[in-house]
Write a structure and sequence with these properties.
Arc Repressor Mutant, subunit A; three-stranded antiparallel sheet; alpha+beta; single chain; 55% helix; globular; 3 domains; 8 strands; 249 residues
């Protein structure tokens, strides 16, 4: 089976409010069947589909439930921790938790974010075509890649993280969201690591990852980072940096 980090995997526009609703239902202890029925009702006026039919609605529900209920084994602890953080995190920072979990679950989303962040570090605005070109270089020149990239960028806009200039297809960054809670900072950095092909990265590269472009993270040390997550470990890397590694269990 192809590694999920090399798959497109997600080709839906995902509204933040839908993820928030899914997480709330999971936190409240509802079972999968109840959550799926609730999401069917929530999305019935937005997306085509229905019971027994794998339409846009059902495909979107699959994404929502993977993010906050049906994670693979290697992401299950991360998912549980994310739900705990949502219970305790102020609304102003909760968007970062949803961003982190969908990035870990769907590395394609994280890749779009990475290319977006890199461009916005260099210039004030960008076009969707610029991101599509880079994504095709990474995932192949397929219509699926174009469509999924466009939908990811539309999602970023829906989340209030990018502004789209109507009629010109030009995106610009909105103000960064400050994340002060070190528990959220460390968890968010861990999700970014899960989305990478390699399960290790120098600390400074991870902390400054362009995939986290919507956020201004509170300063944290490598020692703090690994102390806040039993799933990470730290190795000295060169003279001035540390390597952060996903712990193998």
């Amino acid at each position: 089976m192809q590694d999920r980090k090399l798959q497109v995997g997600i080709d839906r526009v995902i509204q933040l409010s839908w993820l928030e609703r899914t997480a709330f239902l999971a936190i409240a202890g509802n079972d999968n069947a109840t959550i799926e029925d609730t999401l069917q009702n929530l999305l019935k006026d937005h997306l085509a589909g229905g019971k027994g039919v794998r339409g846009s609605r059902e495909k979107t529900i699959t994404v929502l439930m993977k993010v906050w209920l049906n994670a693979p084994d290697q992401l299950k602890e991360l998912q549980v921790e994310g739900l705990r953080l949502l219970e305790q995190t102020p609304q102003a920072e909760s968007l970062a938790v949803h961003w982190g979990m969908i990035s870990a679950m769907y590395p394609f989303w994280n890749s779009v974010a990475t290319h977006t962040g890199r461009l916005l570090e260099l210039q004030e605005s960008m076009t969707g075509a610029q991101i599509e070109r880079r994504m095709k270089e990474q995932y192949g020149d397929r219509q699926t890649v174009t469509r999924s990239t466009q939908r990811a960028l539309r999602s970023f806009t829906d989340w209030g993280l990018l502004t789209l200039t109507k009629g010109k297809g030009i995106f610009s960054r909105k103000s960064s969201i400050t994340i002060q809670n070190h528990d959220v900072v460390s968890w968010l950095m861990e999700t970014s690591l899960h989305a990478r092909v390699k399960g290790s990265v120098p600390f400074q590269e991870l902390f400054n990852s362009p995939s986290l472009f919507p956020f201004q993270l509170a300063s944290i040390s490598p020692e703090q980072l690994v102390s806040l997550s039993p799933r990470l470990e730290r190795l000295r890397h060169g003279l001035n940096d540390d390597l952060i590694i996903l712990r193998v269990v």
